Amino acid sequence: MEHNIKKTLLADSIRLSFGTFNVLNGAWLRSETGKVTGVLGRNGSGKSCMFRAIMGELRTQELFVRYDDKVVTGSDEMGKYVKYLAQKPFLPPKLTLKKIFEYFGADYEAFTDDFPKFAQYPDTPVRELSGGEVRIAEIWLCLCSDAPFCILDEPFSYLSPVAIEVIQKLIGRQKEKMGIVVSDHNYEALLEIADEVLLLSDGYVHLIKDRSDLVRYGYCRA
Fold first, then answer.
1. Are strands 149-153 and 179-183 parallel, antiparallel or unpaired?
2. Rounded to a whole number, what is the largest CA-CA distance in the chain?
3. Residue stretches of the chain with pLDDT short of 70
4. Strands 149-153 and 82-85, how do they pair?
5. Helix axes 97-104, 131-143, angle to 10 degrees
6. DSSP per residue over 62-123, as a string?
7. In whole angstroms, what is the distance from residue 48 CA to residue 50 CA?
8. Over the range 120-139, which residues count as b (16 or more CB within 10 Å of their CB) and which as e?
9. 93 Cβ neighbours under 8 A, 6+ residues apart
10. Is 218 exposed, middle or buried (0-12, 13-18, 19+ CB in 10 A)?
11. What angle do CA 96, 99, 128 make, to 5 degrees?
């Protein structure tokens, strides 16, 4: 990827329902390289469903996804452009961290520069790590990939305040190379790094200009 050329990912007109229950009613998401887009929403608002739909993991009633001027369909093709951190772990539990990093073509030493604690873990199987440690490795692999976009769903969950701060700095560094979408219930940590904030509510996406909008939509108190 040429980092000096801005790339755009647009998902529009997302309609998703399960029977008579409408989850998304024409939702949208736009991301640009060089920018962090924060996505907020209460539990059950459909944030994860929206991300999974964009990645081709959920069949929707309507969905339009475009990478620059190219229409993108299917999970295989989306995987070329977007690395997705779901809420469930994706690292194989029996493999060691070193093997996994080799598989992803990632630099383990660069990882330990950001998280020195992991210098002692290259030959440790994933199943012997804590949930927070696994999450940190997954976040780093997604953010430091060659993909032009990254979606992080609840990256700060189960992480210590110190680890969250390191992740925030990593996101700030990597946004120079990619477009990053972050959704997390720790909205204070999210607001610190987001260049643009969206709120998913009642199946619709609202652009948030400042904190008063979050209060007006009933997401938080004044």
1. parallel
2. 52
3. 1-4, 222
4. parallel
5. 20
6. EEEEEETTEE--SHHHHHHHEEEE-SS--S-TTSBHHHHHHHHT--HHHHHHH-GGGGG-TT
7. 5
8. ebeeebbeebeeebbbbbbb
9. 125, 126, 127
10. exposed
11. 10
Q: What residues contact 159, with CB distance under 8 A and at least 6 apart?
A: 132, 135, 136, 167
Q: Could you give the C-alpha distances from 89 to 54, 60, 85, 209, in angstroms and in order?
A: 19, 24, 8, 33
Residue in the block written with tokens 């990478």: 67
Cβ-count burial of 109 within 10 angstroms (0-12 exposed, 13-18 middle, 19+ buried)? exposed
Q: Which amino acid is at 52?
A: R
pLDDT per residue as tens digits for the range 51-79:
999 999 999 999 999 999 899 877 778 98
pTM of the model: 0.93
- End-to-end Cα spacing for the chain: 42
Residue 67's pLDDT is: 94
Predicted pLDDT at 219? 83
Burial 159-180 (b: 16+ CB within 10 A, else e): beeebbebbbebbeebbebbbb
Burial 140-158, CB ≥16 within 10 A → b, else e: bbbbbbebbbbbbbbbbee
For the record, the structure tokens of 91 come out as 């690292």
Residue 20: its pLDDT value, please?
87
Question: In this predicted structure, what is the pLDDT of residue 4?
Answer: 66
